[in-house]
Amino acid sequence: MKSKLPHVGTTIFSLMSAMANECKAINLSQGFPDFTPSEYLLDQLSFHAHSGKNQYAPMNGIPELRQAIATLTQECYGRAIHPDTEITLASGATEALFVAIQAVVNPGDEVILLDPAYDSYAPAVTLAGGHCKHIALLPPNYQADWQQIEAAVSPKTRLIIVNSPHNPTATVFSDGDWQALASLAAKHDLYVISDEVYEHIVFDQNRNSAHCYPALRDRTFVISSFGKTFHATGWKLGYCIAPPMLSTEFRKIHQFVTFTSFTPAQYAVADMLNEHSDQVHGLGDFYRDKRDCFVNAMQRSRFTMLPSAGTYFALAEYSAISDKNDVDFCEELTRKHGVAAIPLSVFYKTPPNSRIIRFCFAKREQTLLDAAAKLCVL
């Protein structure tokens, strides 16, 4: 059989988590919390499951949740969206990303990716028959060079995928970045996928989004994730906001991928948004404390911690410790020192010559302190 993805194997996240489990290491690699969601959210999940909300939900999501999303979007970004025609629930942000890519990419189309990029983008483009053009964001600032990006646009370019707050670099687009993206997309008639799953985890500036720029609204799929927002990554519940024309195309494909998503969770999340939206608005402060706990504990180490402006990740430069490449260094960290991290090079098509790894600080304070203690002896 000829593989459709001949160069794709098991993801680095699965590999590092499996290695962490094998070695009983502290897992700061894969981006999931080691603490539970709110008791209210769990109680509402149980309530709705026991109340009979266990059958198929509408393909685009239950009305109560779509309305709550519309209200949240208005509160956060001042954008009024129609809950019936512009919001579609999905079984996680990864599904939404895949569906959005399939909706607009045709065989032979080119798609611009900004590396380091989340590892689901390129395979989805390949499966749609498209071709990726990779533009590298370079350390230590990982800033987009919009002149370089525009130079990569050709008559075949159909889509650009952006991610802010950015996994894995923990950077956040400035207003200038969003303005440059809007200008580029309009000038070259490009579609945009804005991966905003960490949208509420911003530390050093106000939350910003493609939602805030009218020039982007008619051409952009904005992808969000309740798993990140409510510490429930295993629920696999995300959503896509797009104008009616793009939402129609999105739903044509979504209905044949998962059709619908976990019904009791949709009702529970709707209740959470309606009754406890303060937890969404307080998420930046919640994770800022965790970032500061970990970064402060790492000050005694020989790692150089890079700035973390958003997400629940922090990058660390380790050239003072080892000259190994980042994949080998992460394996050594896990097997010999009991802490699992993610090598940054795997997010690039052509990695820069740097020694930088990613830690996840979506953990209990004691977990972070225990991990830092092990890392500080290197």
UniProtKB/TrEMBL annotation:
Cofactor needs: pyridoxal 5'-phosphate
Residue stretches making up the Aminotransferase class I/classII large domain: 25-373
Keywords: Aminotransferase, Pyridoxal phosphate, Transferase
InterPro entries: Aminotransferase_I/II_large, Kynurenine-oxoglutarate_AT
CDD domains for the chain: AAT_like (cd00609)
Superkingdom of this protein's organism: Bacteria
Presence of the UniProt keyword Transmembrane helix in the record: no
Classification via Pfam families: Aminotran_1_2
GO function terms (MF aspect): transaminase activity
Keyword check for Transferase: yes
Identification of the protein by name: Aminotransferase class I/II-fold pyridoxal phosphate-dependent enzyme
Organism from which the protein derives: Zhongshania aquimaris
